[in-house]
Amino acid sequence: MGWNPGRGQLAALKAGLFALALVPMVQLVWRALAEALGANPVEAVQRSTGWWALFFLLATLAVTPLRRWTGLGWLPGWRRMLGLYAFFYAAAHFTTYAWLDVWFDPEAILKDVVKRPFITVGFAALVIMIPLALTSTRGMQRRLGRRWRSLHSAVYAAGILGVLHFWWLVKRDIREPLAFGAVLAVLLGARLLARRTAKGSPQAAPENK
Ligand code: HEM
Fold first, then answer.
1. Which tens digit of pLDDT belongs to each residue from 132-176?
2. 90 close to ligand 1 (CB < 6 Angstrom)
3. What single DSSP character describes residue 202?
4. Would the CA dihedral through 139, 145, 147, 153 be positive or negative?
5. Cβ proximity of 114 and 120 under 8 Å
6. Rounded to 5°, angle at Cα 160 from 23 and 43
């Protein structure tokens, strides 16, 4: 079932997606150089990088359910790239905060992590994402075997903490964190449903994440 492009087409699609995922960062650098980030440039960079980190995290989580619903067997080939983009934007997000908000002062970072709940959960999400990014290679996947899958299911925790972080920091208009939360709830629901179905059928093939 589904659309089955050839190898060349798939490689071109993946390269296109890779380039597209870089656009928000290129645009941000461009606007920074042109001094067109508005009245609060630090906040503009923090908001953009945070938003895209969460977007790519949810896109990574969407791969397996989308593969199941559409029958597009090649979709999982995009998961690692999407996950690494989530980490890329999250790392840029944290770097902007550490650099421009607290001037790489470890004491100030620790104080924020302890005292500001929205930073606590953002930090926790980032800490979870680090080992996932480090073990995302095929070699690590082979070396860790079954443990790799358990480790990588922590991506859901990172998603929940990311949404909570966003929810906590908005003051009035909660529409965007609500939308991210709704998408995450659908993706988590789809995973739980697939697990229950797989448990109920003895022949079911093991699912990826
Ligand atoms: C140590 C880790 C982190 C710190 C210190 C941090 C800090 C911040 C700060 C200061 C803001 C801007 C608040 C404002 O509007 O003034 C922000 C916004 C945001 N962060 Fe984080 N964050 C962290 C990790 C993360 C991670 C891992 C994600 C995603 C997975 C994330 C997603 C977001 C989102 C979605 C926003 C709001 C963007 C918007 O307003 O459109 N953050 N964060």
1. 999 999 999 999 999 999 999 999 999 999 999 999 999 899 999
2. yes
3. T
4. positive
5. yes
6. 45
Look up tokens 């922590």; give the residue. 154
For residues 171 and 191, give the distance between their C-alpha atoms in angstroms, rounded to a whole number: 31
Structure tokens at 142: 């082979």
Going from the Cα of 47 to the center of ligand 1, the distance in angstroms, rounded, reads: 6
The token pair that represents 93 in the structure block: 């997000």
Please give the model's pTM, rounded to 2 decimal places: 0.93
Token pair 């003895």: residue: 202
Query: What tokens were used for 76?
Result: 């999982």
Residue 31, SS3? helix
Cβ partners under 8 Å of residue 91, min gap 6 = 126
What does the buried/exposed string (b/e) look like for 139-153 if buried means 16 or more CB atoms within 10 Å of the residue's CB? eeeeeeeeebeebbe
Q: How many residues does the chain have?
A: 209
Please indicate whether residue 96, judged by its CB atom, sits closer than 6 Å to ligand 1: no
Residue nearest to ligand 1 atom 9, measured at CA: 46
* Tokens representing residue 132 in the block: 């996932």
Shortest-distance atom of ligand 1 to CA 43:
16
Radius of gyration of the chain (CA): 19
Task: Tell me how far the alpha carbon of residue 70 lies from the centroid of ligand 1, in angstroms.
Answer: 32
- Residue position matching structure tokens 């998603």: 159
Question: What is the band of 202 on the pLDDT scale with cuts at 50, 70, 90?
Answer: low
